[in-house]
Design goal:
- The protein is α/β, with parallel strands linked by helices.
- Helices cover about 35% and strands about 20% of the residues.
- It contains 13 helices and 19 strands.
- The chain has an 8-stranded mixed sheet, sandwiched between helices. Strands 11-10-9-12-13-15-14 form a 7-stranded mixed sheet, sandwiched between helices.
- About 45% of the residues are buried.
């Protein structure tokens, strides 16, 4: 089976979809592996390393796309790339399916089996292939490091002959993978950390990392079957904001991580809340790519409001591309290997498997997911 790994087309993308070691393991499974020339350049990996691992280096992107039976990549495919894919090809990548109806419709029109890595179910067996969790983990770390660099004070408490310096106060909103890593990183740097999540069960996770949970009685809340927080009602949001406004006013750094998959992120930190914060405070919005949790945040920018710095830089995991590439590459290999038939030496598109059912968005010319199917209506290729 011919596998082609595509170099990201986005010049802002610093990560690599697959490392030579994992490309070599794919080859050992019996796959004919091709890697686009220059794929590893962003993190200093030469083409020769892929060749030494057992993969062929391709200098003709279009020809390799056309002949591949399976395409692996990190970025959302462009329409031009889709037109070169062979009918029946299995395409595996981020697809951002709710926001790219033209891409979804293009894959369906070409009878391409489109697998969206974001849609892999968050089950125990699928943890090894969960790209969202692995990348969010790094984003949570970078958010704290970035805030520490922008902050005008130090994180730890220091007792010196000149007096005692109080620790910085960090407030983390949303205790998923990114939020938990943000808490852990801030604690390691010596900050005093408070955190909030709408899920009651998250309070114990917060305490286990040495942070203090902000407890707000919101009534009935919960999470989806895939582990995401359910959207709050307008009344719950108002009550939550009141409590968080008080906490933000005491904090030097606020990090927001609340995303609702497939929907616009809720605005949690309003301009009024920002105006109540101390000048010199820093806010990092980890949901900026999906609309943002912070009213004043702007995608790709750092803006200041009444002395408070609001950071809206996207894809913070790109700031640490070596570990981000390692984790994505491992996730990708684990996904392919899990469904690899060792006898036929081919990827098994098992339509009865729970993981495949969750992430296979397009197959045999049809958009399978009802909500995504609705989002493609009116799109053109």
């Amino acid at each position: 089976m011919r596998l082609f790994i595509v170099k990201p087309a986005d010049p802002q993308e610093t990560r690599v979809p697959i490392l030579p070691a994992d490309a070599g393991k794919l080859a050992q499974l019996g796959a004919q592996v091709e890697v686009q020339a220059g794929t590893g350049k962003s993190i200093g990996i030469a083409d020769s390393e892929y060749g030494q691992a057992g993969a062929k280096v391709s200098g003709d992107r279009q020809a390799s796309l056309s002949s591949a039976e399976m395409v692996l990549r990190i970025d959302v495919p462009g329409v031009e790339d889709i037109r070169h894919l062979a009918r029946g090809c299995v395409h595996v990548s981020y697809l951002d399916p709710f926001n790219n109806p033209d891409v979804i419709k293009g894959l369906a029109g070409g009878h391409i089996s489109g697998i969206s890595l974001e849609m892999i179910p968050r089950t125990t067996i699928a943890q090894k292939m969960d790209v969202l969790s692995s990348q969010a983990n790094l984003a949570g770390y970078v958010a704290v490091i970035l805030a520490a660099e922008r902050q005008k004070r130090i994180f730890p408490m220091m007792m010196t002959p000149a007096g005692t310096i109080a620790p910085a106060r960090v407030f983390v909103l949303g205790v998923g993978v990114a939020g938990l890593q943000a808490i852990a990183t801030a604690k390691r740097l010596g900050a005093r950390v408070d955190a909030f999540d709408v899920r009651p069960e998250a309070q114990e996770q917060i305490r286990s990392l040495g942070a203090k949970p902000l407890i707000v009685d919101l009534g009935e809340t919960g999470q989806t079957k895939d582990g995401y927080a359910k959207p709050l009602t307008s009344e719950q949001l108002a009550k939550q904001r009141e409590a968080m406004a008080r906490q933000c006013a005491q904090s030097d750094i606020v990090i927001t991580t609340a995303r609702v998959f497939g929907r616009k992120s809720p605005v949690i930190v309003t301009n009024k809340m920002l105006d109540g914060m101390k000048p010199g405070s820093v806010v990092v919005d980890l949901a900026v790519e999906t609309g943002g949790n912070v009213e004043a945040s702007e995608l790709g920018k750092e803006v200041e409001r009444n002395g408070v710095l609001v950071i809206g830089l996207p894809e913070l995991q790109r700031h640490v591309p070596i570990p981000a590439s390692q984790m994505f590459s491992s996730n990708l290999y684990n996904f392919v290997e899990h469904f690899w038939d060792k006898e036929t030496k081919r990827f098994r598109l098992d339509l009865e498997n729970e993981i495949i059912r969750g992430c296979l968005i397009i197959h045999d010319g049809q958009v399978l997911h009802p909500a995504i199917k609705s989002a493609t209506e009116g799109a053109s290729v």
